[in-house]
Amino acid sequence: MGDEQELQAALEAARAAHFDTGGAVCDYAALAASREHERLSGCFAALESCDLKRVRIAAQTAFWLNVFNGVVLRDAGELARAGGVR
What we know:
Layout: H1 3-18, H2 28-32, H3 35-47, H4 57-82
Helix pairs in contact: 1-3, 1-4, 3-4
């Protein structure tokens, strides 16, 4: 599985484990202490060596959206303690 597929799978696992059935509400506290959080963090560590030139042009937008969403989920606990994104 490539790095981009692993990131997508990690996001799907986090959604399945920590979001409500509608996908709108997340238990961020549980996510922050979970295997899914560790998996997301591992995905970002692995992306350091990822060759983005090998990602198909058509898949690059989805890839970067997954990166953004994953970073938000990975850092949600920290953002909550900071009082928000700003």
